[in-house]
């Protein structure tokens, strides 16, 4: 048996004429959140680096967290609030963690954020492998 339309939670649009639809499409830019855009930028840079250095990128795990933890890591003399690299240890793979809120708060606009993400990834990869950042990405500048 069919239920009556008035038994459904929402059955009319704002004007009372038709069925309710989303206010904007899921493919429109307004639908993207700041954290979703940040994740997409990180993934794009990881793909770009993986094309150039597949052997370096494959064993490393990448993660994004909102804010850094409050406890500092003992082996870092100058802790970075933007990202952190964890070397491989006892069967756990090497990890690079980017912190979204500090990076977003220090940049203005998407272009600056994109460059900041690239710089952090290249610096942390170079730190993990004991190389200079210019070896990982020739376009890198201090």
UniProtKB/TrEMBL annotation:
InterPro entries found in the cross-reference section: Zincin_1, Zincin_1_sf
Superkingdom: Bacteria
Pfam families per record: Zincin_1
Name of the protein: Metallopeptidase family protein
Species, as recorded: Bifidobacterium callitrichos
């Amino acid at each position: 048996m069919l239920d009556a339309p008035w038994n459904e939670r929402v059955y009319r649009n704002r004007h009372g004429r038709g069925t309710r639809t989303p206010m904007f499409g899921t493919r429109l830019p307004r639908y993207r959140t700041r954290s979703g855009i940040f994740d997409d930028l990180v993934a794009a840079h990881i793909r770009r680096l993986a094309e150039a250095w597949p052997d370096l990128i494959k064993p490393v795990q990448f993660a994004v967290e909102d804010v850094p933890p409050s406890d500092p890591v003992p082996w870092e003399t100058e802790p970075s609030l933007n990202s952190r690299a964890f070397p491989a240890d006892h069967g756990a793979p090497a990890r690079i963690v980017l912190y979204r809120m500090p990076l977003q708060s220090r940049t203005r606009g998407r272009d600056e954020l994109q460059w900041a993400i690239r710089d952090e990834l290249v610096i942390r990869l170079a730190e993990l492998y004991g190389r200079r950042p210019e070896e990982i990405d020739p376009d890198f500048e201090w």
